[in-house]
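Quick one: structure tokens for this chain, please?
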Amino acid sequence: MEFLTSCEEMAAMVQDAIEDLAGNSVGGEVVGMGADGTPTKKIDLVAEDCIISYLNDHPLCRTLISEEAGVVSMEGDTGTVFLDPVDGTFNAIAGIPFYALSLAYAEQGRVEKAFVKNLAIGETFTAVRGRGSCLNGLPIKVSETSHLDRSAMSIYGRKFDPRRMTHLGQKIRRWRLLGASALELCYLGCGRIDGFIDLRGTLRVTDAAGGMLVCTEAGGVVTDLEGLPLYFPNEVTIGKCMVATNGALHGKVIEYLR
């Protein structure tokens, strides 16, 4: 079965399974520790269990890498699926309609397809390498904003070292911290924001794989803090920093972060 079609089926399963947990403190109950070293909330585990069950019945990949379960061997012949079952867990539990299922399919270490669905409002972002990105099936592209003082960006920094974040923040027009990195990268891809910068060093491959492809296939640029290509290991305990922009602003952002 085609990957993106399967993603729609998985998303429907997850939406049904977490319907009573979203906006409910029960969904926020800690039920264990994830492979990424952070507490696993009930809503995360329920969503992940849906995906694992589906992939057991539909062998789409050889390996699954997920925030909660870590690396899981599957029955497919080839390929790796990166999963964030609920991107924006706090938002989901609090009833803030900005949280998503994020899935990405990779072959030989390169992400080829991506699927990010806002589980609250149903918007679906997809991307296929070399074929662009879409929102609900329609092509999208990044904004054309070329001046920092006209830009809107999502900027996350370390609380104990806010200097880099503050320096850049003084130059932009609007800050928007939305709380779900995969969706924020997709918002960058469709021109709703002009940049996504995370200086915390906590972004993992499961957080970023899907949103990165949506962003870059829509014309965005994603790098590390030095402007160099950003690579994630297939390991959920290792976090990275990220600079993602519409491209036109990238050099300026990197300059102010130095």
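The helical segments are 3-18, 42-57, 89-94, 163-169, 181-189, 205-217, 250-257.
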